[in-house]
């Protein structure tokens, strides 16, 4: 797996999945796995496009579940070909949805895979529908836990605040957090 910053990688074809992927919980894993499998079926490289820090950490000062090194390490285990890490800063956050779409164009996505709450560009103005106007886009359905509730990074953060590390780890699909005393 090779790691690039945004605007460094150009590909003739790819399958790309885009997201903050903070925590790389079971929902993220399912989305990335689906994109990797589609890339293999289409015989093109798989690309994970993600952000450092995650947008919610930048805008809302929320706790980061996995730092960028941990995120890269976990994504590597998922057999992804390329990872693009966009530096999420004030300049990046001010970009238009059109600028983001132009950036993705050089990856020549045969398919783009996103999660159910996907938005992009300044003010979250870009949607999966905007992405699908330019690329064949698929929205992965939410992944639910054994209790039937949607798995999300926000839910994991809330569990950690309530000192429920065991359930947080269940949603992550691995033991990332030790029992909180």
TrEMBL record:
Signal sequence annotation: none
Its EC number(s): 2.7.7.2
Domain FAD synthetase: 12-155
Keywords annotated in UniProt: ATP-binding, FAD, Flavoprotein, FMN, Nucleotide-binding, Nucleotidyltransferase, Transferase
Record InterPro entries: FAD_synthase, Riboflavin_kinase, Rossmann-like_a/b/a_fold
Tagged with keyword Flavoprotein: yes
Gene3D superfamilies from the UniProt entry: HUPs
Catalyzed chemical reaction(s): FMN + ATP + H(+) = FAD + diphosphate
An example Gene Ontology molecular-function term: riboflavin kinase activity
Pathway: Cofactor biosynthesis; FAD biosynthesis; FAD from FMN: step 1/1
Pfam families attached to this UniProt entry: FAD_syn
Keyword match Nucleotidyltransferase: yes
Biological-process GO terms, alphabetical: FAD biosynthetic process; FMN biosynthetic process; riboflavin biosynthetic process
UniProt family annotation: Belongs to the RibF family.
Entry protein name: FAD synthase
